[in-house]
Amino acid sequence: MENRYYQKEIETMPVEEIKRLQSEKLKKQVKHVYENVPYYRNLMDEKGVKPEDIKGIDDLHKLPLLTKADLRDAYPYGLLAKPLDECVRIQSTSGTTGRRVVAFYTQKDVDLWEDCCARAIVAAGGSKKDVCQVAYGYGLFTGGPGLNGGSHKVGCLTLPMSSGNTERQIQFMMDLNATILCCTPSYAAYIGEALKEQGYRPEDIPLKAGIFGAEAWTEEMRKQIEETLGIKAYDIYGLTETSGPGVSFECSEQTGMHINEDHFLAEIIDPDTEEVLPEGSKGELVFTALDKEAFPLLRYRTRDICVLSRKKCSCGRTLIKMAKPMGRSDDMLIIRGVNVFPSQIETVLLKEGYEPNYQIVVDRQNNTDTFDVNVEMTPDKFTDKVSEILAMEKALAGAMKTMLGINPRVHLVAPKSIARSEGKAVRVVDKRNLI
Length: 435
Ligand code: DLL
Hints:
The protein is an alpha/beta fold. It is built from eleven helices and 20 strands.
C-alpha cells in the first residue's frame, strides 16, 4: 500500500523539530494551566515549581503527576481551564465505580481530536472514496464521536451505526459496501462470527480495513479477525482524559502505534517510584496534553503498562511509537500472589484453538483465592461426552498453568453461553472485594 498521510508535515517531521515544537507548546500549556486551574496550581506550588521553571520538554519531570483520583477529587469542574461558555462538549469514561471522569472540549479541542482520528483512518488506507462504518458506542463514550469526526474530516461516507443491533450492522455493511469498520476488537470478532454464521465468506465482505481499540487484544486475535473479515486490522489507542481515540494509531507496518506527539507528550515511569524511565523501558504511560484548551491534563498517569520506541518506521512517519498496552498497572489481577493479565489467558485460548470468549471468575474461600476460567467450546470441539470434556479442560488448565504459573479451574461451557459484548468485553469477575 502506498503511504499516505493526513497531515504529512507533522507526521513525517524530523524528530528534533518535533521536540522543539513540543517544548514551545509545553511552556505555553504550563502557563495556561497554572493561571487557570487552581487545583493544579496548588500541586505545583506544593512541589515548589513555577511555570518559568519549565523551559522545555527536558523539564517535564519537574511537574507533578496527575491520577484518576485527582480527576475524581476535582469532579466536575476542578480541572477546567476555560470558561464553561467556551466549551461545546463533554465526554465521559465508561467507569462503573465511583464518580465518572468528565472531560470538556472547546471547538478547537474537538477539531484537533478529530484530526487525530483522521490520521488513523488515512494510515489504515482510508480516503474520501471509502465508506466508514462506525460501530463504537456513540454518546458519552468517546469511540463513536471520535471516529465519526475523523471519518468526516477524511471525507469518507460515514455510517454512524453506534454499537449493537448486529443484524442491522451486517445489512448496512453489505448493502452500502462499507470498506472500513471501526469498533472494539471484541465486537469485530462478534460481527465476524455472525457473518460467518450467515454464510458469508471473507471474499464476500466489502470491508478492507478495521480500526479497533478501546480494549486490549492480542496478535492472535488480530489474525483471527483479519481472516474472518478478509481485512487488515489496525489498532487505535486513546483515553477519555486525553480526548479519546486517536492519541496513537497503527500504520501499515503494524508494529506499534504512532503517538500524535505534536499534541500528546508521552513518558514512561516506574509505577511504584514514579521515576521517569529511559526509552525502551517497560513502565506506566504518562501523557501531557500540549494543545488541549478546556481540559489540558499535565503528566496524567494512564495506568497502562507500555514501551515506547523511536525505531525508524517503514511508513515514513517519524512519530514515536508505543507498543500495544501490556495490561494495566491497576487491573492486573493478583491471584494467590501471582500477577495475572487477562490477555495471557486469551493468548493461551487462541493458541489452543479456542475463540477468545471467556470469563475469569476470582473469589476467596477459606482465605484462599479461587481462580476459575469459563471458556466457550467452539462448535468444532463440541462434544457431550463427559470424559472428553474433562480431558479438554485438563489440557487447557495445563496450558494456562504453564503461561501463568498457577493452576486455574477451567470450565468448558456451551458455545455462545457467555454474554457477548457490544462494547468492551467483561473479562473479569472479581468477587473478592479486596479494595
Ligand atoms: O477507550 C477511548 C477509545 C475509544 C480508544 C475507541 C480506542 C478506540 P476510555 O473508555 O477512557 O477510552 O478507556 C481508556 O482503555 O487507558 C486503556 O487501558 C484502554 N485502551 C484504549 N485503547 C486501547 C488499545 C477509550 N488499543 C482505556 N489497546 C485506556 C489496549 C486500550 N487498551
